[in-house]
Amino acid sequence: MKKSILISISTLVIETVITLLISWKLSIRFIELMFFVGIACSFFIFWFTSKGGAVSQYIDSQNSALTGIVQERDPLRFRIGPAFKASLLFLLIGLIFFILLVANIIPPVK
Q1: Using CA atoms, how far apart are residues 42 and 64, in angstroms rounded to an integer?
Q2: C-alpha distances in angstroms, 83 versus 50, 66, 75, 93?
Q3: Could you give the C-alpha distances from 64 to 21, 54, 57, 69, 71, in angstroms and in order?
Q4: Model confidence over 48-104: pLDDT tens digits?
Q5: Closest CA to 73 of 84, 61, 91, 87
Q6: CA angle 93, 96, 97 (to 5 degrees)
Q7: Strand partners, 78
Q8: CA atoms lying within 13 Å on the CB side of residue 96
Q9: pTM, two decimal places
Q10: 38 with 90: CB under 8 angstroms?
Q11: Backbone angles phi and psi of 53, in degrees to 5
């Protein structure tokens, strides 16, 4: 339990630091970038924690064509871990702020 909480908190801190650095470098508000960084980090975590899928099938097909040995196909398997859950939380918070920005509830910077 403690390990998953530590992973979740560290994921949120890392995504926050990434968002802060990008917003500082591009001179954009933090809340304007939260949603997009959340999407990118969620995709990144999904990509490296999943197993099987289209890329694996492509590589297996290439190897089968080269060697003549047909391999078993792995279906797409994804383990929803604490890092992915924390990244989704960051994405959802960013989505809420993004909707508030678009609706002009949060005023633009003057």
Answers
A1: 32
A2: 13, 37, 22, 15
A3: 44, 15, 10, 5, 7
A4: 887 766 666 777 777 777 787 777 776 767 788 999 999 999 999 999 999 999 998
A5: 61
A6: 90
A7: 50
A8: 5
A9: 0.80
A10: yes
A11: 95, -165
Which residue type is seen at 50?
S
Answer yes or no: are the C-beta atoms of 34 and 94 closer than 8 Å: yes
Task: Say what the pLDDT of residue 54 is.
Answer: 65
**Tokens found for residue 55:** 């890329």
Rounded-to-integer distance, Cα 66 and Cα 86, Å: 41
Q: Please name every residue paired with 61 in a beta bridge, in sequence order, or none if there are none.
A: none
Name 104's Cβ contacts closer than 8 Å, sequence gap at least 6.
Answer: none
